[in-house]
Amino acid sequence: MATSDDGSAMWWSRWTARLLGVRLVLGAAALVLLAFLGVGSLSFTQALIGLIIIAAAALIGEVGTRQDTALPTPRAAMPTDDPLLEAVIAGLPDPVVLLDRDGRVITFNSRAATLAPALRRGEPASLALRMPDVVEAIRRAISTGKAQRVEFYERVPVDRWSEALVAPIALAEPAGNLVLLTVHDLSPIKRVEEMRADFVANASHELRTPLAALSGFIETLQGSARDDAMARERFLGIMHTQATRMARLIDDLLSLSRIELNAHLRPDTQLDLVPIVRQVADGLQTLARDRGVTIAVEAPAGPVRVLGDRDELVRLFENLIENALKYGAEGKRVDISIAHVDREARVAVRDYGPGIAAEHLPRLTERFYRVDVGESRAQGGTGLGLALVKHILNRHGGRLAIESRVGEGATFTVRLPLTASTAAAA
């Protein structure tokens, strides 16, 4: 408990501090009064009374000034030192900024600092956010008390679509009202939407060509060629080719969708690549004979085991070997080699055809990309074969390497991780 002596000391300390605060005023007043006293205009008693009045007036002004400046109207207490709040904000996966009711920054997490490096505690968020739509959403949320949602797009440093949610939070006094700004990255969703739109447009275009051909020949057979046996046979052959191409396109689209659906699931079945590749090569011997091409398979004596999905790997090697037979037929030979090198299984499919220009190599695995559209359609290609190969390899943790020079053929090399037992034996 405080004693009377302590109270007197505190009282004397406060008034001493106030007197020191007005010492300049008192000094000036004393000089003026001494001047009047010296010329006989005032008596000593009058001068002393005047000094006391001036001191009292100065002290009253000092107290009023301190009340106006040192003790402003109390503001809402902001929870800037709440460790639980700081931990929650820091742990959120999206950029988050907590603002007071005037739009000043209370706290933010590291992701928000990356998004807006100029953020500073205690400063208006509008100074740090270079997003006019977000700043306006904050203003509306504060003025209306209603949550605001806005999407915005940034080009620098990379193209990025984002969504900002500004949510007012009503708290009991003295904390007052707060505003929570959360930014969510929409870029992956937007890119998928764009990819899907491009995919549907390309697929529609690819299906339209065989459908138009089928419709045209059907109309011809129903009309002028109704009784022409030779024309009917020729047209039916073309229609069969177009229907087969359309069925294959649909099959490739469905296969691609299934592979993408399971892209995050690694296959766990041990498979030997040697019999799979030989089975595929044997199954394509009829196509090879039709094109006058010889298929040679070189494989080690022992197994080359990988973890994989048998149907998908069969599809992968079918696409690569069939492409070599179709587009490299003029070389009259396709060489297939199987080996294990540096803990990898490698299957190389080599043709001796016209080769591929360097500018096309990086884009060969894109959907519907063709080096020669006319040649691809003439060969019955769908433009999805190498895209399927890429996605199958991605699911299996593998890679595809393509080497080619114009006039020297092309080599497509599949690389897959060996199983632990095969890698140890190698």
Model description:
This protein has 14 helices and twelve strands. It has helices at residues 4-21, 23-38, 44-69, 83-91, 110-115, 132-144, 187-222, 229-261, 273-283, 285-291, 310-327, 373-378, 385-395, 420-425; strands at residues 96-99, 105-108, 148-154, 160-170, 177-185, 270-272, 294-298, 305-307, 333-341, 344-351, 399-404, 410-417. A five-stranded antiparallel β-sheet has the order 2-1-5-4-3, with helices on both faces.
Task: For this entry, give a set of tags.
five-stranded antiparallel β-sheet; elongated; 426 residues; Helix Hairpins; 18% strand; alpha+beta; 12 strands; Beta-Lactamase; 51% helix; five-stranded mixed β-sheet
Query: What shape does the CA trace take?
Result: elongated
What's the tally of helices? 14
Alpha carbon gap, first and last residue? 86 Å
The CATH architecture of the largest domain can be given as: 2-Layer Sandwich
Considering DSSP H and I runs of 4 or more, what fraction of the residues is helical?
A: 40-55%
**CATH H-tier superfamily of the largest domain:** Histidine kinase-like ATPase, C-terminal domain
CATH topology tier name of the largest domain: Heat Shock Protein 90
Q: Whole-number average pLDDT?
A: 78
CATH class of the largest domain: Alpha Beta
Contiguous uncertain segments of 5+ residues = 62-79
The H-and-E topology, N to C, reads as: HHHHEEHHEEEHHEHHEEHEEHHEEH
Number of domains: 4
Could you give a short account of the major beta sheet? Answer: 5 strands, antiparallel
- The total of beta strands comes to 12
How much beta, percentage-wise?
15-25%
The computed structural class is alpha+beta
Strand order of the largest sheet: 2-1-5-4-3
